[in-house]
Design a protein that fits this description.
InterPro entries: FP_C (IPR057251), Znf_FYVE_PHD (IPR011011), Znf_RING/FYVE/PHD (IPR013083). Keywords: Coiled coil. It comes from Plutella xylostella (Diamondback moth). With 363 residues, this protein is of the alpha+beta class. The chain folds into three domains: 83 residues, Zinc/RING finger domain, C3HC4 (zinc finger) (Herpes Virus-1), CATH 3.30.40.10; 111 residues, 2-Layer Sandwich (Alpha-Beta Plaits); 70 residues. It has seven helices and eleven strands. The strands form four sheets. A four-stranded antiparallel sheet has the order 6-7-5-8, covered by helices on one side. A three-stranded antiparallel sheet has the order 9-10-11, covered by helices on one side. Strands 1-2 form a two-stranded antiparallel ribbon. The radius of gyration is 57 Å and the shape is rod-shaped. The two termini are 94 Å apart.
């Protein structure tokens, strides 16, 4: 690439012949970058810089009487006619272009070195950041291991034990709210029945005299399913072949009345709904204490496991669940499912002389 020595712009190859070329330094100049007429310039034209150097040399050098400079002074280089020497022009242009290319290559090489240096600096900073992050992760892992160790040492188990105790206490509080309630199950359900009149009839059949003022509330609880419909609905009856009706929940005014009603039901075990004024076929009904959902599920588990282990006595009293293996064995108060496994297998533990055995997993 050839640049103009005046404006420093690139001169196309087609325009080089129209430009002025210094006979000494071979630098190209646009015609409009020079003052004066281009045609009036000699073939051995010198650029302003070279012309100034020549003038300074002539002014300093001593002149002989004949008007010829001394032999030690450099002679002016006179180039051949550029219009008639195409080969020389091509060589000079190639040299200029080669010099410019080398200069640009050096500039690009310097820029590449700077970029590589910046890249090395960024990689070093990134490596330091990774090292710091790795150290923080190691510290975090150490803290997690310490917390897990604390949980393993008993902190977590103590918290779980506290939560379990709170749940048991809350369930016992809920059970105390039901201390005056009884639940009558398997009693025929009919359309338009009066639950208060029905409980009074049941009490009379069991030999207990109850007044209407002794009944705080009486109602059927639970979802009414299709298989427990009363007579007259969809043309189906509710006799002995019908499904299990919803339980009748009764709240009495005094706790003593509830105990008397449950005692009378146990004395007359096997009583049926005959003579209660119902149109359905007679069926046996059962009177029990009303339990919370947790106690009801627990009592169901106790009965299932008691049957498998041949425990003879399983009952509830004042909202508590009790179990006894035989007549001469002590009773066991079961509060949680963990107590279940202990009750059913405590005899085996004593016989095998086992201690500190986690029996919860047996359930």
């Amino acid at each position: 690439m050839t640049k103009c020595g005046g404006c420093k712009k690139i001169v196309p190859r087609g325009d080089i012949a129209k430009c002025a070329k210094c006979a000494k330094c071979a630098i190209i100049y646009h015609p409009y970058c020079l003052k004066g007429d281009m045609e009036a310039r000699p073939a051995t034209w010198l650029c302003p810089a070279c012309a100034q150097v020549v003038e300074e040399t002539i002014a300093v050098a001593p002149v002989s009487e004949t008007g010829v400079s001394s032999p030690g002074l450099p002679e002016l280089v006179v180039a051949e006619d550029r219009l008639n020497s195409t080969a020389n022009d091509t060589t000079e242009e190639f040299k200029v272009e080669l010099g410019l290319e080398i200069r640009l290559f050096r500039q690009e090489l310097t820029a590449a070195r700077e970029e590589i240096q910046m890249f090395r600096t960024e990689v070093k900073e990134l490596k330091n950041s990774f090292t710091e992050t790795n150290n923080r992760l190691n510290a975090l892992d150490s803290r997690v291991d310490l917390l897990e160790q604390r949980l393993t040492d008993g902190t977590g188990s103590r918290l779980e034990s506290i939560i379990a105790d709170l749940r048991v206490e809350l369930n016992e509080k809920d059970q105390e709210l039901l201390e005056n309630d009884v639940e009558i199950t398997n009693l025929n359900e009919e359309n338009g029945e009066n639950p208060t009149h029905l409980i009074l009839s049941v009490a009379a059949k069991l030999g207990l005299n109850l007044n209407e003022s002794d009944v705080v509330s009486a109602e059927r609880v639970g979802a009414r399913k299709g298989w427990s419909r009363a007579p007259g609905e969809d043309g189906k009856g509710a006799g002995a072949g019908a499904g299990r009706p919803r339980p009748l929940v009764v709240r009495l005014s005094r706790r003593a009345l509830k105990d008397d009603l449950i005692t009378a039901a146990r004395v007359r075990r096997g009583a049926t709904s005959a003579d209660l004024g119902q149109s359905s076929a007679p069926r046996p009904f059962f009177v029990n204490e009303r339990l919370t959902k947790i106690n009801r599920q627990l009592f169901y588990q106790v009965r299932e496991i008691g049957r498998r282990q041949s425990w003879r006595f399983l009952w509830t009293k004042k909202g508590r669940i009790y179990a006894r293996q035989a007549q001469d064995t002590p009773r066991q108060w079961i509060r949680t499912s963990n107590d279940n496994s202990c009750v059913w297998y405590c005899t085996k533990c004593r016989d095998d002389n086992l201690t500190n055995v986690n029996l919860t997993i047996i359930l």
